[in-house]
What we know:
The structure holds two protein chains of two kinds.
Chain A: E1 2-12, E2 15-25, H1 31-41, E3 61-64, E4 67-70, E5 85-88, E6 95-97, E7 100-101, H2 104-111, H3 132-142, H4 149-153, H5 155-158, H6 169-179, H7 189-193, H8 206-210, H9 217-233, H10 236-243
Parallel strand pairs in A: 1-5
Antiparallel strand pairs in A: 1-2, 3-4, 3-5, 6-7
Helix pairs in contact in A: 3-6, 6-9
Chain B: E1 4-14, H1 18-29, E2 34-38, E3 54-55, H2 67-77, H3 84-103, E4 118-119, E5 129-130, H4 136-148, E6 154-157, E7 159-167, E8 170-178, E9 184-194, H5 215-222, E10 227-228, E11 233-240, H6 254-257, E12 261-263, H7 277-280, H8 287-294, H9 309-321, E13 331-334, H10 345-352, H11 354-364, E14 373-382, E15 385-386, E16 400-402, H12 419-441, H13 449-464, H14 471-485, E17 489-490, H15 492-511, H16 522-546, E18 555-556, H17 564-567, E19 569-575, E20 581-587, H18 593-601
Parallel strand pairs in B: 1-2, 1-9, 2-6, 9-16, 17-18
Antiparallel strand pairs in B: 3-5, 4-5, 7-8, 8-9, 10-15, 10-19, 11-14, 12-13, 13-14, 19-20
The structure holds flavin-adenine dinucleotide, iron/sulfur cluster (SF4) (2 copies) and FE2/S2 (inorganic) cluster.
Flavin-adenine dinucleotide is lined by residues 14-20, 37-40, 45-47, 49-53, 136-137, 160-161, 195-197, 207-208, 211, 215-216, 250, 381, 404-405, 417-421, 424 of chain B.
Amino acid sequence: MSTATFRIWRGEKGAGKFQDYSTEVSSGMVVLDAVHRIQAEQANNLAVRWNCKAGKCGSCSAEINGMPKLMCMTRLNSLPLEQPVTIEPMKAFPHVRDLVTDVSWNYSVKKNIAKFTPRPPDAPDGTWRMAQKDADRVQEFRKCIECFLCQDVCHVLREHHMHEQFVGPRFLVYAAALEMNPLDQADRVPALRQQYGIGLCNITKCCTKVCPENITITDNAIIPLKERVVDRFFDPLTKLFRVFGAGSR
Amino acid sequence: MAEHVTHEHDVLVIGAGGAGLRAAAEAAAAGVSVAVISKSLLGKAHTVMAEGGIAAALANVDDRDSWRVHFADTMRGGQYLNSWRMAELHAKEAPACVRELEAWGAVFDRTADGRILQRNFGGHRYPRLAHVGDRTGLEMIRTLQDHDIHLGMDVFMEYTVVALLKDGGRIAGAFGYDRERGRFHLFRAKAVILATGGIGRAYKITSNSWEYTGDGHALAYHAGASLMDMEFVQFHPTGMIWPPSVRGILVTEGVRGEGGVLRNKDGRRFMFDDIPAAYANQTSDTEEEGWRYTQGDKNARRPPELLTRDHVARCIRREVREGRGSPHGGVFLDIAWIKNRIPNAAEHIKKKLPSMYHQFKQLADIDITVEAMEVGPTTHYVMGGVRVDPDSQMSDVPGLFAAGECGAGLHGANRLGGNSLSDLLVFGKRAGQYAAGYARENSLGVIHSDEVAAAEKHALAPFERDGAEGPYAVQHALQDMMQDLVGIVRQEKEMLQALERIQEFKLRASRAGVSGHREYNPGWHTAIDLNNLLTVSEMVTRAALERKESRGAHFRDDFPAKDDKFGSCNIVIRKGPGGEMQIRREPIPEMPVELKQIIQEMK
Lengths: 249, 603
Ligand SMILES: Cc1cc2nc3c(=O)[nH]c(=O)nc-3n(C[C@H](O)[C@H](O)[C@H](O)COP(=O)(O)OP(=O)(O)OC[C@H]3O[C@@H](n4cnc5c(N)ncnc54)[C@H](O)[C@@H]3O)c2cc1C
Ligand code: SF4
Ligand code: SF4
Ligand code: FES
């Protein structure tokens, strides 16, 4: 056992300050353990979200030493403990208290994305057939735990606050899971261009770098979707085909 | 009385896990107005953590499977204390519920011919668990969540219910607060569905999150509903044990389903040393046969690692007690060994058990494709809960329904892995359907302002105290005590001691104060939840004292054998007129001959 210092953002609605807490740390601990220990022993009212403590629920997102991370999956032995470990709330969303932010915008965005619309079942018992390799592609996106760290780091949201015009990487992944699901029949391509604002993404790949589920957000989800948009709206030949009813879908 | 906001709905669903979301979908589809409340954000409930799969006799992998086999497996696993009617409905309706998930967008792993793939799990005769790698719960909750948001229901995220309100005998609504502002809310509703999950936070070592403080169990109890089977707490045999900070985190049974084996420090497969008579016919005699079973050989019988959880947990405890444990007080779970059997084993393991691979790599610096894991029992699930009508899921209190982990009946003395996720779907759906029906036939009950005022006063009490001790200290002491005195192996002397300690903790809890304001204040929330934890701890202890035998998850050192007298009754708990906890034994209704026959045939 040794002690380490945690510099935690305390306050409400954006107003607040860093406060230092020293606590005992032992081998194997993660940042969330330290936060819990501080909460139990020194600051009962320290606001923090968590549920699974195993990287499965996406509740405990925060910025640790400036990096967007899950607190429950960040081992203390991966951080330099000679200096204080800073823990701050995510920046792309309105602040509530201490480490908690108001992420409700994400939930309202999802409501506006056309829901799963399967083709009629393939078999009389109401089931479908799908090859595992088709499932694989969609399953990569469905691993998303909705931690919103990718939203937090995307400059379109974080710096330019374009929450009205851009759904953010999380929901491009969501749209990709639906668009690339071989059973789905809805068409989200026009919405991707308009309401979802896919054009605002300039492929910086910051989202991919922070995704704790290692989803290749940019290469596997966003770029293929951008291609669909381009094919549909900007490729004159495809446009022509569509006019004559030989649509690209 | 301070201010509160009032909401009105036909059906109020408390809980947004699998059971709550499925219930809400059904009620909304029936055309009534629905509200869903949850302590956490949408999609973060416990269901998200489920790993292994959903049990349903789809018979996609082995066509010998049918609802009859699933029914018999469930009853055997529950040592025949289950509600046979629930076990029957569950086995019959689970396949359609799984297919429905697919129709709503779930993408399960596939068989070679493109159907839903199923895997082996403890206590299930055939490969039966529909799954997505080892993140099935995520797939399930996300599918339900994404389905529900288009059904026009009102969702109240990060709201906590602290009391149910009644009008005479029937339910009238619920009272709670929102985390963000700490404001109070009154939810009037014609019918209320409890889908609040479990009680695992009553124990120190648990796979359960902060939410699992037995709120629904306690709410129902105080509202006058009966609870049953509270002595049956499932200790999952394989939780992480090292490093200390991850102690309790689950290691899915899927590891054993994929060929993982348990060994003691001498390298012995100790599970072969003690095979219960009821399972002798279905269990392999040799390591070779067990391996063939996990690889889909239909003529092989399952390895003893896949015996029921209660038994595996006790065998592990025995190895550790008798000095044959691993360095940190557990045993070894080895999946890496399959590299001797199949090519590309490491890739195979990563594909089949990706989040286990991840979890050990990141949290314990262990590569499970190379090394064995160290595991030990962890508090996982409560079979006991609100006693309900098997068909409608309505409790003794008219208009109050319960589904999912907070309900009781399906699992009896021990739950089979995978039978929870299917339970959520089958009985969540039924609760939604019947609650909607109840709401259509009844009007809103009257709210009694004195009840509301009392609930509010009770909720605010922690702020009035200047107690030196905070709620966390009491919670931790309670968890230590339950772990020690009412754990995997129990005896009368210790449990009587536990009851005394619970009284002490009640006193300490009633003095524990909190500082700060009502806005997002976890100290305050913990103080409120602590009351529920104390209530459920007392229920578990009293029920466990009453059952003077060993059966399923309940093991008594002082009564180590099964006793037929207890084989035909459930222990039922109710709040007495003077506020005392009443315990009684209630006979299980006679099983119809057709069902008895099925059990005979499958012996
Ligand atoms: C790690 C792990 C792995 C598992 N793996 C499997 C598996 O592979 N297969 C299987 O079948 N089962 C598995 N289980 C068990 C299964 O996941 C749970 O039993 C099941 O998900 C419980 O679902 P539920 O809908 O009843 O409750 P939960 O999903 O826990 O939802 C409870 C809801 O109630 C809300 N709530 C609680 N109290 C209140 C209150 N006072 N006010 C308002 N809201 C409240 C919570 O916020 C939450 O939304 C696993 C469990 C764990 C912990
Ligand atoms: S790649 Fe696009 S979505 Fe991702 S962070 Fe960069 S701009 Fe945002
Ligand atoms: S895509 Fe990755 S980073 Fe973004 S919300 Fe999902 S899991 Fe989190
Ligand atoms: S607590 Fe669930 S991801 Fe960290």
